[in-house]
Design goal:
Blueprint lengths: L1 E6 L2 E10 L2 E12 L2 E3 L2 E3 L1 H6 L16 E4 L26 H7 L2 E8 L4 E8 H7 L1 H12 L4 E11 L2 E3 L2 E3 L2 E13 L57 H5 L2 H8 L12 E2 L39 H14 L4 H5 L3 H18 L37 H17 L6 H23 L9 H5 L3 H13 L32
Parallel strand pairs: 6-12
Antiparallel strand pairs: 1-2, 2-3, 3-8, 4-5, 7-8, 9-12, 9-13, 10-11
Helix pairs in contact: 3-4, 7-9, 11-13
Length: 499
């Protein structure tokens, strides 16, 4: 049986399927995230698009394979994952076996970026949810009755440097570091609502003003963190151009979320929605009237804990990270090798930026604010007064400069690569021009960003233009979806709202 729910002027199809003997409701093409001002800052389009290509906390790619949960998983005493050392009610990562067994009700599939939103299919195991009872059963009731339900995306995020994003200067910009999960909220509201074009079924967006905790980072495992921010994954595909700058801001961004200048928090995630309280099917998500908080989560986690990196090397990295940031050992152990290495690099960079090595303001080696290291530091601070900076930092700067110059040199060995890269760029531009020429939805201004789309998204656009005779493929939305209403603020990343 096929059902339809109207969302933001378009029909979202819900298909009933049988998988491994269980009945599933699959909501297709649900808008999960879009570029907008969210609780912690503006999330640029390049990071929205990149989220479909980066490593997620489950060890997969993009939103595919992440978990739809009954409300956002939280640090509560009734749950097996409760950590007494963390604040009660903090949001935690869904990339945790206990969380998935207790609150997971299916899987997120077939994510794609359509130029405005990241969309995905949400497959809900109706039989399992019905058996769980409580709010899990409410989710099934809402779908069957055509009422829909609010949804909120959960991810790791990082801070981006102030600058121009999507045509406007932004002081507070955030990047998605790693998708983690999508919370289904049967009795609450997400911050990025259906009014904003997110989710399925008509619904009212929650005003962030009504949820003071939204945007605050909890100590949970599922918070937005980085590579989204420059956040590239082993290699995260987000390392395109300016995105790499964001990677370097990953941990400082996490730190800013918790109000400290130290580094990332212990792998908490930020949920985008301020869902109203939810009594979890197996312990619940809280009492009525309770507010949700957002936290940064660990990025690109590998829930299996499997790795090809030698165990002693992983332990060494984990020891350094826990000693120099607020990330905890349990969170780090779930990370894949690539994610762990990226995290280590970010912590190292963050520690260096904090000036934690002790040099004082005058360039000396003491801590009293005076240059009592006996030698003039006019040459750069190495204390030799020879006009040459022989400190490790100075040598590193020289080596980095040499590496940069080497990268810029076109050698006989690299010329083929440069030619191939240029040819690929020209080909992408030509393909983008054809898409624009065959579509009523795009114009010449869209050529550049379409040409920069990942290959699989570019192919989808080509198929859509061909199949629809100039219109996006069936299931993809038109651009310029409904924006936020005056009374609606966004949360960290547009939540997936199914209302």
């Amino acid at each position: 049986m096929t059902r339809y729910i109207t969302a933001n002027g378009e029909d979202v199809e819900i298909v009933e399927e049988t998988r491994n003997g269980d009945r599933y409701y699959v909501a297709t093409g649900v808008p999960i995230v879009k570029p907008m001002d969210l609780a912690t800052g503006y999330v640029p389009r390049e990071w929205i698009a990149a989220s479909t290509e980066m490593e997620n906390t489950h060890g997969g790619t993009g939103w595919d394979g992440t978990t739809p949960t009954v409300n956002h998983p939280r640090n509560r005493s009734e749950f097996s994952w409760h950590d007494p050392d963390r604040p009660e009610d903090d949001i935690v990562l869904a990339a945790n076996e206990d969380v998935q067994e207790t609150l997971g009700v299916g899987t997120v599939e077939n994510d794609r970026f359509d130029g405005e939103y990241v969309r995905a299919d949400i497959a809900i195991n109706a039989d399992e949810a019905r058996e769980m009872g409580g709010e899990a059963a409410d989710i099934v009731d809402d779908v069957e009755a055509g009422r829909g339900l609010e949804v909120s995306s959960q991810y790791l995020h990082a801070e981006l440097p102030p600058g121009e994003y999507d045509g406007s200067y932004r002081e507070d910009a955030k990047a998605i570091a790693a998708p983690d999960s999508v919370a289904l909220i049967p009795n609450g509201r997400g911050v990025c609502s259906v009014v904003d074009g997110c989710g399925i079924a008509p619904g009212v967006a929650a005003n962030v003003a009504d949820y003071p905790d939204v945007g605050a980072i909890s100590a949970g495992t599922d918070d937005p963190v980085s590579p989204q921010t420059g956040q590239g994954e082993g290699q995260r595909t987000m390392d395109n151009g300016s995105q790499m700058a964001g990677v370097r801001q990953l941990f400082s961004g996490i730190a800013s979320l918790v109000g400290s200048a130290a580094g990332p928090t212990d792998g908490t995630t930020k949920s985008q929605t301020a869902d109203t309280p939810d009594d979890d099917p197996r312990g619940g998500d809280g009492e009525a009237g309770e507010q949700n908080s957002n936290e940064p989560a660990e990025s690109g986690a590998d829930t299996t804990g499997n790795s090809t990196m030698k165990d002693d090397k992983r332990e060494e990295l984990i020891r350094f990270i826990t000693a120099n940031s607020e990330l905890n050992e349990d969170s780090l152990e779930h990370m894949g090798d690539t994610c762990l290495k990226n995290t280590h690099e970010m912590v190292v960079a963050n520690a260096a930026n904090d000036g934690s090595d002790g040099p004082d303001a005058d360039g000396g080696d003491d801590d009293d604010g005076t240059d009592d290291d006996d030698v003039s530091d006019a040459d750069g601070g190495d204390g030799e007064g020879d006009g040459v900076d022989n400190t490790d930092d100075g040598l590193d700067a020289v080596m980095n400069r040499l590496d940069d110059l080497e990268d810029r040199m076109v050698t006989e060995d690299s010329i083929d690569q440069h030619v191939e890269t240029a040819a690929n760029q020209l080909e992408a531009e030509e393909r983008a021009k054809k898409i624009v020429a065959n579509s009523d939805e795009y114009d010449e201004d869209d050529v550049d960003w379409i040409a920069g789309l990942p290959e699989k998204e570019l192919e989808r656009k080509e198929r859509g233009a061909t199949q629809s005779g100039g219109l996006p493929a069936a299931g993809s939305p038109s651009f310029g979806a409904t924006g936020n209403e005056d009374s609606v603020d966004g949360d960290d990343m547009p939540d997936l709202e199914v209302n």
